[in-house]
Design brief:
Number of domains: 4
Mean pLDDT: 82
CATH topology of the largest domain: Rossmann fold
Strand content: 15-25%
Strand order of the largest sheet: 3-4-2-7-8-1-11
Shape: globular
Distance between the termini: 62 Å
CATH class of the largest domain: Alpha Beta
Largest sheet: 7 strands, parallel
CATH architecture of the largest domain: 3-Layer(aba) Sandwich
């Protein structure tokens, strides 16, 4: 369960988000708006980024201890969050040393560091590396524009626990920051210098600001010598051990000279625990040493495991757990199987048979599925595991070349190991010792097997969960095969590190599944657009305007106040129309005279003095207007419309321009689909299995259809149009309904929303003659209402009642300037006769 502190932060960030991110700098608003519009970040990544900004700009980059203190409305909540019982709180209330005791508990919980120290806990596969990169670049942008603001970093140091993770952290450098950063800030990226310290020989010469240094802790950590020079001794332990002389290496000295430094600790659970024993824990002392030399901006820790011994780390400010990852479709669903009292060969036979029946050679995003066997030692692997596995595979006629062995004595296979998650790799059975734990990202790994107890219990957790990263439509369930002993170890480690259990994970279902849409063919379409501009010309003098309040009927007006627009209705008359969703007001208001006049001014653009004059001419005194407008808020839209009718006449100016519409803007990005609808997400690789390759379709991959009719129609068109040279391509455009990614839409008057809306057609067929067919697919049950409205349509907006027909009318306006486009609606598109009719229409067009 999340801590009270964490729950409190989440609630405060949610309120801040709902309020429109009030209180942040302009650049931050732009970055948040861009990242949200592009939609590349997973929801947990974006929420964690929001939390980071909130704590930095709204809270003020304070110490966790101070944030904790200010997070609770009353002292009782504060004490409960500290773990103090109500009885202990009562006793503490009368204790003369109350404040000292509370401070001692806080320092035990959060430490005594005088810099901001935060932990962001996101389960594997949710994108901690990208999150780290986004946080980093945000700081660099803000520090570039606000050079004297000490909340923002100008240099970054990333601590990784080992060299394997350094390899995965290279994504910080290669990431396309356009997915999260507006164009106007991207030149700042040119100032960044990257330093990856992969070996002890890698030099480090950071220059100026905007350095990103990524290092294994060993490469820059403090070295310690005893006073008598007896060599490296234990650094952390009892107080006497800490009296030793510290020696900094050259890299540490170079980092110490950097100003406005922020430190990121990757896989930060290594730096927490019951003891401070071990080399990895020395990271903390190195951080303290750097802070003394040059005050740190903050330390940000990223981890997938926020629990130590089943207790959440105190500094956690954001948490997205393992169970949530499975539920949201970021991770695979999983079956965890334990085998008791089985011989090792019998265990392997069971594993191989299950793997073969569940996965076989069925490719996932073009990659072969893989299983990893973790052995306790190299001798175990070479003398027991590998010979037995080879016999079992041979008996089942499985090629032995599909085996890959990788450990410290098989470094020649390193390149093949890092190539595993590619379509080129032919390996499926991966035998490992001391490899393939943290930092190994192989999405096509679908199963893991451990049948002998390893040297470390945490290794059971790290190795078994490697197979959970999602791939494709994420309908593939992972399998973990364990001996009875390892099953108990994993259950214990899940409780300690994730506050979860094997039974919970086995029962966890996905509710939402995330898919990443990628560009296969970049496509643009040239069209003509008619731009209309309504020009207002003052028609009457203000003193001549008189409102007849006897005409006011409250029932004719909804009680609303929102941003509006001016439009030309029938006969060229001006009208006032809502441009956004209507917001109902309470029936009684409490506005002052000046607030009422300000609302009228907002829509009529007449001065406050002129509006007051109109009211007086119309027989409304100040007091009467205030009383009546507050008693019936529908009066304000009536006044606005009457003034607009009298004060202005309107002329419409039209201009035809040529535009190039993009079908593939700002890709890749992620979408979320309900689990029950994931069968409507279709990958090109799956469609082309068994040699069914084709040139038609998949300008993006995958396609996310809204209905089975759309999916069936696409498959039909892909099959029958493949050899028809007159058809250039078919694009499914209805799955991406965001103008950040798809320009191909029409505007139409929506009878449901009572406003102008955007319509993204389902399919676009392009011919080699420059002609196009737009196809809208609808369920058969919608046909009767469509046809009835088409018959009853009188040429006015009021007579448009059906959405399908309204979209057709919207297309007709578009077609007035684009004669090379045709439009067809297909009801019951799965029916063969409808598909054949459509084929004839396409042939006539081509």
């Amino acid at each position: 369960m999340d801590s009270l502190f964490l729950q409190n932060i989440r609630a405060r960030v949610s309120d801040w988000r709902t309020g429109g991110y009030q209180g942040v700098l302009r650049e931050t608003q732009n970055i948040l708006a861009h990242a949200k519009r592009v939609g590349f970040l997973h929801p947990p990544q974006f929420e964690a980024f929001e939390t980071y900004i909130y704590l930095k700009e709204i809270v003020g980059n304070k110490l966790s201890l101070e944030v904790f203190r200010s997070s609770f409305a009353n002292e009782l909540e504060f004490l409960r969050a500290l773990g103090i019982t109500d009885k202990e709180a009562l006793e503490l209330a009368y204790d003369p040393k109350k404040n000292e005791k509370i401070q001692a508990i806080l320092e035990e919980k959060f430490g005594t560091a005088d810099y901001a120290n935060q932990v962001y806990a996101l389960t594997m596969g949710s994108g901690k590396t990208i999150l780290m990169a986004v946080m980093m670049i945000y700081d660099f942008v803000l520090s570039y524009y606000h050079k004297d603001d000490k909340r923002f970093a100008k240099n970054a140091l990333v601590f990784a626990p080992d060299t394997t993770i350094i390899e995965s952290l290279k994504e910080i450098k290669t990431f396309d920051y356009a997915k999260v950063l507006p164009k106007e800030y991207q030149n700042i990226l040119l100032n960044i210098k990257y330093h990856y310290l992969e070996s002890t020989d890698t030099p480090l010469s950071p220059n100026g600001n905007y350095n990103v240094i990524v290092s294994n802790s060993q490469k820059i950590i403090l070295k310690t010598r005893s006073e008598n020079g007896n060599g490296t001794m234990r650094l952390f332990g009892d107080k006497g051990d800490l009296e030793k002389r510290e020696v900094e290496n050259k890299r540490l000295y170079a980092i110490r000279t950097l100003s406005e430094l922020m430190i990121f600790v990757d896989e930060a659970h290594h730096s927490y625990g019951k003891t401070l024993e071990g080399t990895l824990k020395k990271t903390r002392q190195t951080i303290e040493y750097l802070h003394k030399s040059t005050p740190l901006i903050a330390v940000v820790n990223l981890t997938g495991t926020p629990y130590v011994n089943n207790k959440m780390i105190a500094d956690v400010v954001y948490h997205f757990g393992l169970k949530q990852g499975i539920e949201k479709g970021i991770l695979k669903q999983v079956r965890i199987l334990d085998y008791g009292n089985v011989k090792s060969e019998q265990f392997l036979e069971e594993v191989i048979d299950t793997f073969k029946s569940e996965y076989g050679a069925k490719r996932l995003e073009g990659r072969l599925p893989k299983i990893a066997f973790y052995a306790a030692s190299i001798s175990d692997l070479q003398q027991e595991l590998k010979p037995k596995l080879e016999r079992i595979l041979a008996a089942r006629k499985i090629n032995l070349d599909t085996i890959l062995e990788y450990h410290t004595e098989a470094e020649d296979n390193r390149d093949e190991f890092f190539k595993l998650d590619t379509a080129e790799s032919k390996k499926q059975f991966v035998l490992l010792v001391g490899k393939g734990t943290e930092g190994w990202n192989c999405r096509s790994l679908v199963a893991v097997a451990l049948y002998k107890k390893p040297t470390s219990t945490i290794l059971v957790l790290q190795s078994t969960t490697r197979c959970l990263r999602a791939i494709g439509d994420n309908s593939t369930r992972a399998h973990i095969f364990l001996s009875k002993e390892n099953y108990k170890i994993l259950d214990h480690e899940l409780k300690n590190n994730f506050s979860s259990s094997i039974s919970e994970l086995n029962a966890q279902d996905q509710k939402m599944i995330d898919f990443e849409l990628k560009v296969e063919k970049r496509r643009t379409v040239k069209v003509k657009k008619i731009l209309k501009e309504i020009i207002a010309v003052q028609d009457s003098k203000a003193e001549d305007i008189k409102i007849d309040f006897k005409k006011f009927k409250a029932d004719d007006y909804m009680s609303y106040v929102s941003e509006g627009s001016i439009f030309l209705g029938e006969g060229g008359k001006a009208g006032f129309q809502e441009a956004k969703a209507i917001r109902r007001l309470k029936e009684e208001g409490d506005r002052t005279f000046y607030e009422i006049v300000e609302i009228i001014n907002r829509y009529t653009h007449l001065s406050c003095l002129v509006i007051e004059s109109i009211m007086e001419v119309s027989g409304k005194k100040r007091a009467d207007l205030v009383k009546e407008a507050n008693e019936n808020v529908a009066l304000l839209p009536f006044i606005i419309q009457e003034i607009l009718k009298s004060a202005y006449k309107y002329e419409e100016k039209s201009e035809t321009v040529e535009e190039e519409l993009e079908l593939t803007k700002l890709y890749p990005f992620k979408i979320s689909v309900q689990q029950g609808r994931n069968a409507l997400v279709v990958y090109r690789e799956d469609e082309e299995r068994d040699g069914r390759k084709g040139r038609i379709g998949f300008h993006i991959n995958p396609y996310n259809f809204d209905s089975g009719d759309e999916k069936d129609l696409f498959r039909y068109l892909r099959d029958v149009l493949e050899k028809r040279e007159a058809v250039k391509d078919v694009y499914f455009t209805g799955g991406v309904t965001d103008t950040s990614h798809n320009d191909f839409y029409f505007e139409y008057w929506s009878p449901e929303k009572r406003r102008i809306a955007r319509y993204f057609p389902d399919f676009l067929v392009e011919t080699t003659r420059g002609r196009f067919l737009v196809i809208e697919v609808k369920h058969g049950g919608e046909k009767a209402d469509y046809e009835a409205n088409k018959r009853s349509y009188k040429g006015t907006l009021e007579s448009v009642t059906n959405e399908v027909f309204a979209k057709e009318l919207g297309f007709e306006e578009f077609r007035a300037a684009n004669k090379n486009f045709e439009y067809v609606i297909k009801f019951n598109a799965s029916l063969q006769q409808e598909q054949v009719k459509l084929l004839e229409e396409i042939q006539n067009l081509a």
